[in-house]
Write a structure and sequence with these properties.
With 408 residues, the chain is α/β, with parallel strands linked by helices. It contains 14 helices and 17 strands. The protein folds into two domains: 138 residues, Aspartate Aminotransferase, domain 1 (Alpha-Beta Complex), CATH 3.90.1150.10; 255 residues, Type I PLP-dependent aspartate aminotransferase-like (Major domain) (Aspartate Aminotransferase, domain 2), CATH 3.40.640.10. A seven-stranded mixed beta sheet has the order 4-10-9-8-7-5-6, with helices on both faces. A four-stranded antiparallel beta sheet has the order 13-14-17-16, covered by helices on one side. It has a two-stranded antiparallel ribbon with strand order 1-2. Bound molecules: pyridoxal-5'-phosphate (PLP).
């Protein structure tokens, strides 16, 4: 089935805007996606009619807010097929989810243990592990990538030892759009006795995720990249591991009993949810998930796959353009390229595109190591969502042609 693009686009009022005198062409979805009306309206309804703190009040509104937030947790559980709803922890984003694990996992690691990440990671899946490595005396190892931007799995196999305690890998690269073979990576890590965290920030917007089938120990993603509000994220963790971990932050909500001598912690998931959460955001995330389910995950995947193929073909027809990871076997969501003109930066191209109302991301995409690997300071990245049309891509191509003329 093809998706009804007109119907979908009508749900995103922001797409009707003009920017710099031109209709907005929004191709920066890997940074954040736009929000459908159902999400916008639910945010307003929450503050107009429900607003109350959760898990505390005996009063009616507090109870409604609590029920709705727990319903959202339940929906996320089903959405990624977690076994239990309390394995779903609300965070403020993928970054916080990774920091939480890299901090709370301390009792499960010891000095001399090893962490494996990849050359393809977002900074938020590098720096928290550097912190942990420094605090606990762990060694950080990096899976290299080949010229296609694909992880070299034979090198990964060599890096795995009996000391490997954690493997932290992104599911889909935000810098190159490469889909990593995480099924194999997870299996091998488990055979070596390591825990695996998957950074799914770029995968959940584009792919059906089943954390049990993947057998991921931890899986993180951000609401704002799946049509939901900012300031909300999800950490999925296996119950057994979350139970063995220490709390991330202390405060209200996360305790059972507090005295000055000793504090006991609340059960999952509240042990990891100190303080007042983003109640509105957590509740409204439900609408974002429902939006994706209504369009249909299979339809989203097929549509975006068509857009990816079309964009690759159209870009490839241009002269003097370098497309990164073009020959990688599996790509989704984003495509990165540069004009092959000396002394021209990706931001020069981004600036010219912006003047035409075309929003792309330029620079290192919070992934400097992979830029260094390719010997560049940045790329132009066009990234897709379910509302992206072929006409958007045609506009992008026209914009690039103009940039070539102006900069060449
Ligand atoms: C966006 C992104 C993150 C960080 O997500 P936040 O929502 O900014 O916390 C981490 N990893 C990848 C691959 C991303 O694309």
């Amino acid at each position: 089935m093809n998706i009804d693009l007109k119907y979908i686009r009508n749900q995103f009022p922001i797409l009707e805007q003009t920017v710099n005198g031109n209709p907005l062409i929004y191709l920066d979805n890997a940074a954040t996606s736009q929000k459908p009306l159902s999400v916008l309206e639910a945010e307003e309804v929450y503050y107009k009619t429900i607003n109350s703190n959760v898990h505390r009040g005996i009063h009616t509104l507090s109870q409604i807010a609590t029920v709705e937030m727990e319903e959202a947790r339940k929906l996320v559980q089903l959405f990624i097929n977690a076994k239990k709803d309390y394995e779903i922890i609300f965070t403020k984003g993928s970054t916080e989810g990774i920091n939480l694990v890299a901090s709370s996992i301390e009792p499960l690691v010891k000095e001399g243990d090893e962490i494996i990440i990849s050359h393809l990671e977002h900074h938020s899946n590098i720096v928290p592990w550097q912190f942990l490595a420094k605090r606990k005396g762990l060694l950080l190892k990096v899976i290299p990538v080949d010229d296609n931007g694909e992880l070299i799995l034979s090198e990964y196999t060599k890096l795995l030892t009996e000391k490997t305690r954690i493997v932290a890998i992104n599911h889909i690269s935000n810098a190159l759009g490469v889909i990593n073979p995480i099924e194999k990576i997870i299996k091998q890590a488990h055979e070596a006795g390591a825990y695996v965290l998957i950074d799914g920030a770029q995968a959940v917007p584009h792919k059906k995720i089943d954390v049990q089938a993947l057998d991921a120990d931890f899986y993180v993603f951000s609401s704002h990249k799946i049509y939901g509000p900012t300031g909300v994220g999800i950490l999925y963790g296996k119950e057994r591991l979350l139970d063995a971990m220490i709390p991330y932050q202390g405060g209200g909500e996360m305790i059972k009993e507090v005295t000055f001598e000793k504090t006991t912690y609340a059960n999952l998931p509240f042990k990891f949810e100190a303080g007042t959460p983003n109640i509105a955001g957590n509740i409204v995330l439900k609408k974002a998930v429902e939006f994706m389910q209504n369009v249909g995950l299979d339809n989203i995947m097929k549509h975006e796959d068509d857009i990816m193929k079309y964009t690759t073909k159209r870009l490839d027809e241009l002269d003097n353009i370098i497309i990164y990871a073009k020959d990688a076997q599996h790509r989704s969501g984003s495509i990165s390229f540069n004009l092959n003109i000396e002394n021209i930066h990706s931001s020069d191209v981004g600036f010219i595109l912006d003047k035409q109302g075309i929003a792309v991301r330029t620079g290192h995409h919070c992934a400097q190591p992979i830029m260094n690997r390719f010997g560049i300071s940045g790329t132009v990245r066009a990234s897709f969502a379910t509302y992206t049309s072929k006409e958007d891509i045609d506009k992008l191509i026209e914009g690039i042609k103009l940039a070539q003329k102006m900069l060449g």
